[in-house]
Design brief:
Layout lengths: L9 H9 L8 H11 L4 E7 L2 E7 H17 L7 E5 L6 H10 L3 E5 L5 H10 L4 E5 L1 E2 L2 E2 H8 L6 E5 L8 E2 H5 L29 E5 L7 E5 L1 H12 L9 E3 L7 H14 L2 E5 L5 H11 L3 E3 L2 H13 L9 E4 L6 H11 L3 E7 L3 E5 L15 E2 L3 E6 L17 E7 L10 H5 L8 E9 L5 E5 L4 E3 L5 E3 H8 L5 E10 L7 E9 L6 H10 L10 E4 L13 H14 L2
Parallel strand pairs: 1-13, 3-4, 3-5, 5-8, 8-9, 12-13, 12-14, 14-15, 15-16, 26-27
Antiparallel strand pairs: 1-2, 6-7, 10-11, 16-17, 17-18, 19-20, 20-21, 21-22, 23-24, 25-26
Helix pairs in contact: 2-3, 2-9, 3-4, 5-6, 8-9, 10-11, 11-12
């Protein structure tokens, strides 16, 4: 299946190497170096359910990677096999990412807010051999969910916690608990017999993202594309081995994997992580307790972080800067961060397909994030192309001078697994990838995102809602003749959206609760469910039968603004 990805042309790869944008080593080599030079320096400080769970030094992290790699080999995982990680922010994630690479396997993280339907798709589409999850998290039974949807192709289910009720393998028994000197059956595995480690240009991360085609897309990255993505932020922000970073967003999301997983290993820095990732009171305690210097948080997290600090101020003087992205950042938020934390709020733009591409820099004018989503580093190029006249259903707020944002360069992914034609359709003959987002020039060599794809809704958390995917499931409801999902303003976090189902009823109009019950029965993740329902006699469509969402969105915006 890996023959469906798009490998860079030899001359293109050569130019990346010559410019030192790519390298001949991997994050595994970085870890080996750190295990020798900074063996006693903390790599991971992990909190579970609000309490300190474990601290791993770089020496201990390297040992855990070897132990986990041996366990995977004993489970029959080999080169090119996929290991799905359906986990909240637990300390095991970074060593599991690297352990897969140690034996040439490919980790595929799945954020825990996704449900059984999405998990089943990933397991089936990737032909995953092993899936690792927790027993329960936030009152949800993840082990039971995995057992219910696991395809026949999945050979092993591994559960952190109580594995017995679902007949899964116990993580502790198979992998050991990761404590220094802890015994495990995996220790008997001889590394000399293991598959060869992943190379810098081999598939090294498979991460699924919502798509506008109605199907999730399996984005494939190598260690080199991840290396370029990491440096897009670490270089201009001058992060070093002395930094302590924290990212409350899920580590199974592209941003979390990049900044909480791979960035510290590249730099030899420390990552402070929490599985109760929406607990901003705890995050503030961790800033004060561990001297966090750099944090990334999407707008909804950031809004709650500000409220928590105002309610109970902590000593956050260690913070040097905060970065936000994944969803639109409003100018007022930048001013609030300066007022409350006395640090700059930087903005960035990127996608699962390429990690961070643009970011505001320390030398930019104060508050520049209110006007810009930053500029790219030399290894990524951005271009703003004219909007195609036939694409009538674009964001109404795109503005003068806006165009489609195109990108290319060293952090661009290797394509979509098993969807080569889909990926090729977004890349032109010169290698420019059409992001589908709308942007304009910010006047200082960067970009400002001005619009969104009309068929992809962004919540305040940064979670993308694929309208076509949800609509396809809703159309199976007997009371729905036609439906379109449309974003409308989220009053809690300006610039982001909630989700409305605009329904043409088939008989008696369904209630919002009935829609939720239907989506629950289809095992669709709750984060994708609509927040309200509206009814119309018919949906506006163009001559080709495509639903025009902008008229519906404008109607919802007018209704929203008219509320007292």
């Amino acid at each position: 299946m890996w023959d469906t990805i798009r490998v860079p042309a030899p001359d293109q790869a050569r130019s990346y190497y010559e410019a030192a944008w790519w390298r001949g080593s991997t994050f595994l080599d970085d870890l080996d170096d750190l295990a020798r030079s900074r063996a006693d320096h903390p790599a991971i400080v992990a909190y579970e359910a609000g309490s300190h769970a474990r601290t791993l030094t770089y020496g201990e992290l390297a040992a855990a990677v070897e132990r986990f790699a041996g366990a995977l080999v004993r489970l029959g995982v080999g080169r090119g096999d996929v290991v799905v990680l359906y986990l909240p922010n637990r300390w095991m994630l970074t060593p599991l990412y690297l352990a897969c690479g140690r034996i040439g396997a490919v980790p595929s993280p799945v954020i825990p807010v996704l449900g059984g339907r999405e998990l089943a798709f990933v397991l089936t589409e990737s032909k995953a051999k092993v899936c690792i999850t927790v027993d329960t998290f936030r009152d949800a039974d993840y082990a039971a969910r995995l057992a219910e949807v696991a395809p026949d192709s999945l050979e092993h289910r591994v559960v952190i916690g109580d594995a017995a009720p679902t007949g899964a393998l116990s993580f502790g028994e198979v992998f050991g608990d990761g404590a220094p000197g802890a015994g495990t059956a995996a220790g008997a595995s001889d590394p000399a017999t293991w598959p060869s480690p992943v190379g810098p240009d081999d598939p090294a991360l498979l991460i699924y993202t919502s798509g506008t085609t109605g199907l999730m897309k399996g984005v494939v990255h190598s260690h080199n594309t991840l290396y370029a993505a990491v440096r897009t932020v670490s270089d201009p922000h001058r992060l070093t081995a002395d930094d302590v970073v924290s990212i409350p967003n899920y580590m199974t999301h592209m941003a979390g994997a990049t900044y909480a997983g791979f960035t510290p290993v590249l730099l030899g820095a420390t990552c402070v992580m929490q599985d109760t990732n929406t607990d901003m009171e705890l995050l503030l305690d961790l800033v004060e307790r561990h001297g966090i210097t750099w944090a990334y948080a999407s707008p909804s997290y950031l809004t709650n972080l500000l409220d928590a600090q105002r309610g109970k101020p902590r000593d956050t003087s260690s913070l040097k800067r905060i970065v936000s992205g994944s969803a639109p950042v409003q100018p007022d938020l930048i001013a609030q961060v300066r007022d409350v934390f006395d640090v700059p709020l930087h903005t960035l733009w990127g996608m699962t397909e390429n990690g961070a591409v643009t970011v505001t820099h320390p030398e930019d004018p104060e508050g520049w994030g209110a006007h810009s989503d930053g500029r790219s580093m030399p290894w990524m190029q951005v271009r703003i192309a004219t909007i195609d006249d036939v694409d009538a259903d674009i964001d109404a707020d795109a503005g003068t001078g806006a165009g489609r944002l195109l990108v290319r360069g060293a952090s661009q992914c290797l394509g979509y697994l098993n969807q080569r034609e889909l990926y090729d359709g977004w890349v032109d003959a010169d290698g420019w990838f059409d992001t589908g987002d709308l942007a304009r020039d910010d006047g200082r060599g960067g970009i400002r995102i001005t619009g969104r794809r009309s068929d992809l809704i962004t919540r305040a958390t940064g979670q993308k809602v694929s309208t076509l995917e949800v609509e396809t499931v809703l159309l199976r409801h007997p009371s729905i003749a036609d439906v379109a999902l449309v974003g409308y303003p989220d009053p809690a976090v300006p610039g982001t959206d909630l989700v409305c189902a605009v329904v043409v009823p088939a008989g008696s109009p369904p209630t919002l609760q009935e829609l939720h019950d239907h989506l629950r029965s289809e095992q669709m993740a709750a984060v994708l469910w609509p927040d309200r329902v509206q009814f119309v006699w018919e949906l506006p469509k163009n001559a080709l039968g495509k639903v025009l969402r902008q008229p519906l969105r404008r109607r919802l915006e007018i209704a929203h603004s008219a509320r007292p």
